[in-house]
Design brief:
Elements lengths: L2 H14 L3 H15 L1 E9 L14 E4 L3 H7 L9 H8 L2 E4 L1 H8 L5 H12 L5 E5 L8 E8 L5 H28 L11 H11 L4 H8 L3 H14 L5 H10 L19
Antiparallel strand pairs: 1-2, 1-5, 3-4, 4-5
């Protein structure tokens, strides 16, 4: 199969995906074919200027080793990681050589240097980062493409010179596709009832209206709203509606819904 045919087949497969997990699985395999075998993707619509915001409100996808992620995310090292800081404040493509040059020229802090040393010790040495364009100051998405162990940054630059435009466009497509899909909430997923109640609130219905429409009492409606707020980490119902909307939780594909309960409550 020609390179163009391979890319077109990949694009068609991505467009057919109905879950973020399916997109990610295909993308990991595709990037590995270019020499980038470890990826970390982050997207949020609740950030403050120059930061990524609360990770609880973000989509984080990665196939990095657990030991590395436990440190990089679990210990919040990403807050000061040079390429993550670059991605939070810029749009476009950036070689990891940028961080190495900053260090060489004495422009990086001791904290940044310690993170670079940790990365190197764990095989995160060479790669590229892409920070995607967004239409809102509250939104930001980016991906770090880590080259497989043994590849130098110079070798990565050679890969990018030959196929960088193609790699960047594929990542842009994947980012756009992810933005259209509902965010999976593995720990605290919304139930169909919670989602339905929030949708009626978003439509401007009162508690009494919703109770009548759903043939439930108001106390049950309030229970579903309370649990939806908890699951979405929202302080108010209005914030829960906003989060559910921005996470594409409304009007999701039927195949992605949780099984309907057999009782009304």
């Amino acid at each position: 199969m020609s390179d163009n045919a391979s890319v077109l087949k990949f694009v068609a497969s991505i467009l057919e995906c109905r879950s973020i997990e399916a997109v990610w699985e295909l993308h990991v395999k595709k990037m590995d074919s270019y020499g980038f075998d470890r990826l970390i993707y982050g997207a949020t619509r609740f950030r403050t200027h120059g930061e990524f915001g609360d990770l609880a409100d973000a989509v984080i996808l990665t196939n990095h080793d657990k030991d590395y992620i436990d440190l990089f995310l679990g210990k919040e090292l990403y807050i000061n990681a040079p390429m993550a800081v670059w991605a939070a404040n810029n749009t476009g493509v950036c070689s990891w050589q940028w961080a190495l040059d900053r260090r060489k020229n004495g422009k990086s802090s001791d904290t940044e240097n310690s993170i670079l040393d940790l990365n190197a010790s764990m095989g995160v040495r060479a790669g590229y980062s892409i920070s995607f364009d967004s239409i809102s100051d509250r939104s930001k998405s980016a991906i770090g493409l880590c080259a497989r162990r043994g590849l130098t940054q110079d070798e990565v630059e050679s890969i990018w010179q030959k196929q960088g435009d193609e790699i960047a466009q594929i990542n842009n497509l994947v980012n756009l596709k992810i933005s259209t899909l509902p965010i999976s909430r593995q720990s605290n997923p919304l139930t169909d009832r919670q989602r339905e109640v929030l949708q009626w609130v978003a439509d401007g219905k009162t508690l009494q209206d919703i109770a009548t429409i759903m043939q439930l009492n108001q106390a049950t409606i309030q229970k579903h709203l309370r649990l939806a707020r908890v699951n979405l980490n929202a302080e108010t119902t209005a914030q829960a509606v906003l989060k559910a909307s921005l996470q594409n939780q409304f009007f999701i594909f039927e195949g992605l819904r949780t099984p309907k309960p057999s009782h009304r409550s």
